[in-house]
Write a structure and sequence with these properties.
Blueprint lengths: L7 H5 L2 H14 L17 E8 L4 E5 L2 E7 L1 H5 L10 E6 L5 E6 L5 E8 L4 E9 L3 E7 L7 H13 L3 E7 L12 H5 L4 E3 L8 H8 L3 E5 L6 H8 L9 E3 L5 E3 L6 E5 L2 E4 L14 H4 L7 H4 L16 H7 L6 H12 L1
Parallel strand pairs: 3-5, 8-9, 8-11, 9-10, 11-15
Antiparallel strand pairs: 1-2, 1-4, 2-3, 4-5, 6-7, 12-13, 14-15
Helix pairs in contact: 4-11
Bound molecules: guanosine-5'-diphosphate and zinc ion.
The site of zinc ion has 8 residues, from helix 10.
Length: about 350
């Protein structure tokens, strides 16, 4: 199976509608703190990739090797901690041989979880993984049971962070037929890959889809994420190995990395919390913007800020009544999310 990644967004929503959608999304929420973002590399500085965050230090792969890094006094003085595994960090060498982290580049995408900010009394995004290309939404055919609502929730989260989804169905050895049709997702242009850890069915296809990308696995506990990650990166526990970093240069990996390379230029980010994400991070009024198939209809709703639940002359609900235009199950998931 070959996927034209450039075509994916098109298949999921008409291009212009989607662009407008995203614009309103950007306007509706200030994403993450921008204060540590550096847009131009200062002279003499180096660019590395953050692979592990410890309490008082970080690990960075830079110029072929893994280095220790600490945040610059300027960042610490401002209390800036908005760094995540996968961030490209701007550093300068310090005399003791470690690196001083000055900031990071703007993220192209992210996976975040909610963090309540008590002092400002609001929920903020705590980014767990940065610059992620693919989110592998992992669901099992059974044990635990497959509910499409979970898929819809994860899709909202990924859409929020501009991460492209892939749906990976696991444990296909346990049933002869898929318990629920996932056609609605295929029609949205989302790759659906059926796998079994036990028989190894679909594993090559999964590898093909994830090759050359940075991926994260998300899904309920027990669906088989660890098993799949273990298959992709069987040597993750081996102390060192010659691999390439994202810039294509050689590097060494050691145990304990949260970002690792399972094939050339192909990375998995697996940090605490990333596998079992909640939805709380997305604000109610944003959810409608994160159902891409609503876009072409939403433009025709009477109210431009229509939530598509009970407003009069709602084009989304009208489209729902005309069979085949909009997935009823997806809309049900949407209403549930709105009601929580
Ligand atoms: P995680 O919590 O999502 O990381 O799930 P695990 O990878 O730990 O797997 C949970 C359980 O499901 C383990 O007992 C695995 O052996 C089992 N399991 C994982 N993948 C498969 C599969 O493809 N088929 C079957 N029959 N069992 C599986
Ligand atoms: Zn509407």
């Amino acid at each position: 199976m070959s996927i034209d990644w450039e075509q994916l967004p098109d298949a999921r929503a008409k291009k212009k509608d989607r662009a407008n959608y995203k614009k309103s999304l950007r306007a509706s929420a200030s994403k993450t703190s921008q204060s540590s973002v550096i847009s131009e590399l200062p002279e003499g500085s180096l660019l590395g990739i953050l692979v592990t965050i410890h309490k008082n230090r970080v690990e960075i792969v830079i110029n072929h090797e893994r280095c220790e890094g600490v945040f610059s006094p300027a960042l610490l003085a401002q209390g800036i901690t908005d760094f995540a595994v996968g961030d490209y960090v701007v550093c300068t060498p310090s005399p003791d041989g470690s690196l001083l982290v000055l900031g990071r580049t703007e993220r192209t995408s992210f996976i975040a979880r909610a963090r309540s900010d008590r002092t400002r009394n609001k929920i903020t995004r705590h980014v767990l993984a940065a610059n992620v290309d693919v989110g592998v939404i992992t669901v099992a055919v059974k044990d635990p049971a497959l509910h499409t609502q979970f898929i819809d929730r994860y899709l909202v989260l990924l859409e929020d962070g501009d991460v492209k989804p892939v749906i990976c169905v696991t444990k296909t050895d346990l049933v002869s037929e898929e318990p629920v049709s996932l056609d609605v997702y295929k029609e949205m242009g989302i790759p659906v890959i059926e796998t079994s850890f036990k028989t190894r069915a679909g594993i090559e296809e999964l590898k093909k889809v994830l090759f050359g990308k940075t991926s994260v696995f998300i899904g309920q506990s027990g669906v088989g994420k660890s098993s799949l990650i273990g298959l992709l990166a069987p040597h993750e526990d081996i102390a060192t190995g010659e691999v390439n970093n994202r810039t294509g240069k050689g590097t060494h990996t050691t145990t304990g990395s949260n970002l690792y390379e399972w094939a050339e230029n192909s990375f998995i980010i697996d940090t605490p919390g990333v596998r079992s994400l909640g939805m709380e991070v997305v604000r109610k009024e944003e959810i409608r913007l994160l159902f891409p198939e609503f876009a072409e209809f939403a433009a025709k709703c009477k109210y431009h800020d229509c939530l598509h639940v009970e407003e009069p002359r709602c084009a989304v609900r009208e489209a729902l009544k005309k069979t085949g235009m909009l997935g009823a199950r997806r809309y049900d998931s949407y209403v549930r999310m709105m009601q929580e």
